[in-house]
Design goal:
CATH class of the largest domain: Mainly Beta
Structural class: alpha+beta
Strand order of the largest sheet: 9-10-11-14-13-12
Strand content: 25-35%
CATH architecture of the largest domain: Beta Barrel
Number of helices: 11
């Protein structure tokens, strides 16, 4: 049985309105909010409710980073979220440890008050021994997707995202599971926070207070996320991560052969610009190309600062077996977990072997060429 059939992702979908609800939580005071990728997938407009416990005020949000493979996404709102009280656990949580889940399950039935459940970690792996996930018993339902999972010290240990689909289990095994829930380990979110160069929050003392008091502080930083998929008034379809379109063509030179690009990089002293993309299926990749890479401002920056290399992972567009092998090996080398991902690197050649010095990486950044180039220039300071 395929994993996707056994797992029931716990966002709440209202197909009549093309709307999805989930949970998110603050990761940086400057408006950054984490949730699940499947909460934002296929949606193009987002609002956030519950900031400081206020469910009457709505805040518009945009997606600034995604990691589809690990089911993570980061949103941003244009307000200061205040001082975040909790920290982030970087190492593994012990089996048997107490866990506390926060979220907005089934709001149409249960209301929009933040819900809180308690459990324990009962496995350090998910379905099919997936090491990225915890299995735990803090009950979650539809709408809990993207909500935080804390330990007793008020430190984030995971992001809730799935439970077992008992309809499939009953059909296949003649039985069902009870209170089997999954959360993505916090260290995978920390990778995205690092990619965005955000300051990591630290526990401000809630580790020393009772759980009921922790709830009062944490609840101000856990939000209801409402996504919708709408078309603009001029009948142009807004961005949709599931949409398949013809890839946008560049109007200047991008390399696909890494060996040739390495030689040029060594000769010119310009770093390599590795763009990991899914050109004919990845909506965020196409959005980055459309908003940044085809713009004259970016072209001028690239000609001065980098050797551009497209490392494509298309689903429909045919590419050679050699390119597939090259791109796959580089994706593994650089630990690419989601698209789009850009790595800036400097190559060296010793005894005929190429080594890459990683300067830094960046994904989609809202704000057009200016914002994206500002982030890239910050990375280039590591040269």
């Amino acid at each position: 049985m395929k994993k996707s059939l056994l797992l029931l992702f716990v966002c709440s979908s209202f197909f009549a309105f093309s709307q999805v609800t989930g949970t998110g939580f603050a990761i940086n005071s400057s408006g950054y909010i984490a949730t699940n990728y499947h909460v934002v997938e296929g949606q193009n407009k987002f609002i956030v409710k519950g900031v400081n416990g206020d469910h009457f005020t709505q805040h518009k949000a945009i997606v600034v980073k995604i990691d589809k493979q690990n089911d993570l996404a980061i949103l941003k709102v244009d307000i200061n979220l205040g001082r975040i009280p909790y920290g982030f656990k970087k190492d593994k949580q012990d089996i048997g440890s107490k866990t506390y889940a926060y979220g907005y399950p089934l709001t149409s039935i249960l209301g929009n008050e933040l819900k809180f459940t308690e459990g324990i970690i009962n496995a350090n792996s998910g379905l099919d021994n997936d090491p990225r996930w915890y299995q735990h018993t803090a009950t979650i339902h539809a709408g809990n997707s993207g909500g935080p999972l804390f330990n007793k010290y008020g430190n984030l240990i995971g992001i809730n995202n799935a439970g077992i689909n008992n309809e499939v289990v009953r059909k296949k095994y003649g039985t069902e599971t009870t209170n089997v829930n999954y959360a993505i380990k916090s260290r995978y979110l920390l990778n995205l926070i690092e990619d965005l160069d955000l300051t990591l929050t630290t526990n401000n003392g809630i580790n020393e207070i009772e759980i009921t008091q922790q709830y009062k502080q944490i609840s101000k930083f856990v939000y209801l996320i409402v996504g919708s998929n709408e078309k603009s008034n001029n009948n142009n379809t807004s961005f949709n991560t599931n949409q398949i379109e013809i890839p946008i063509k560049y109007n200047y030179k991008w390399h696909t052969d890494v060996n040739k690009a390495v030689n040029i990089s060594v000769e010119t002293g310009k770093p390599l610009f590795f763009f990991f993309t899914g050109s004919d299926w990845c909506g965020w990749c196409k959005k980055l190309v459309k908003e940044v890479f085809v713009k004259q401002e970016f072209k001028a920056w690239a000609e001065k600062n980098a050797i551009l290399v497209e490392l494509d992972f298309p689903r429909r567009t045919p590419i050679s077996d050699d390119l597939k092998k090259q791109n796959r090996e580089l994706g593994q080398m650089f630990g690419v977990r989601g698209y789009p991902t850009v790595w800036l690197v400097t190559p060296t050649i010793e005894d005929g072997k190429v080594n890459f010095n990683k300067l830094g990486s960046q994904g989609y950044v809202a704000g057009g060429p200016k914002a994206w180039i500002a982030g890239a220039n910050k990375i280039l300071k590591n040269k």
